[in-house]
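Appendix B. Raw example, untouched.
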Amino acid sequence: QVQLVESGGGLVQPGGSLRLSCAASGSKFSIYTMAWYRQAPGKQRELVAKITSLGSPNYTDSVKGRFTISRDNAKNTVYLQMRSLKAEDTAVYYCNLHPPAGVWGQGTQVTVSS
């Protein structure tokens, strides 16, 4: 079972940037499609971005042009570079396989506020 640990969140002003990291355990990381999800207060968890084993990315419309997902299979790590952050990006961000599998990590809080 893959274990996931997210990091890199924090408080940032509108227009700012953050880079999230997700460290995964397990020897089969490189074959999985990985994804970032987020859950804002009072809302359901949503898919933000995903990346295939070969590095092909896909984004939800609201983050296209602002977020970049990437992966380093040698480090079993997936990243989410977030730029031009908006208040509506405020959420707890999680990584997982796509489709999701196993137990979710603790997530990392991203707060966009002036």
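End of appendix B.
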